[in-house]
Amino acid sequence: xxxxxxxxxxxxxxxxxxxxxxxxxxxxxxxxxxxxxxxxxxxxxxxxxxxxxxxxxxxxxxxxxxxxxxxxxxxxxxxxxxxxxxxxxxxxxxxxxxxxxxxxxxxxxxxxxxxxxxxx
Length: 120
Ligand SMILES: O=C(CO)COP(=O)(O)O
Fold this sequence. Notes:
- The chain is about 45% helix and about 10% strand.
- By secondary structure, it is mostly helical.
- Helix 1 (about 5-25) runs parallel beside helix 2.
């Protein structure tokens, strides 16, 4: 197993552990939004690639489907957070499991408008 596969397995393990704490408590997911934020990407200027984000978001949704059901899992918005900015936002547009962004630093700058436009 190469190191990126090991890393992907570890990422999913951490995410499912964190999600389990929520799925154990919450039964109605109507108003729940999930944010995937790799710690190394927060405030560093180094975002996950759109392909990597799609991959983990998809696995998160599949995990949710097993616990809360397919219908609620498909309706749950899964946002990407971590150095989302005007330059990289467009690359996430066609990723079906990336439903939007949780924007930190760039939300305080004019480029925030471009991030919003990238979702339209
Ligand atoms: O943690 C974040 C938003 O809550 C992400 O922050 P940045 O977009 O600045 O990396």
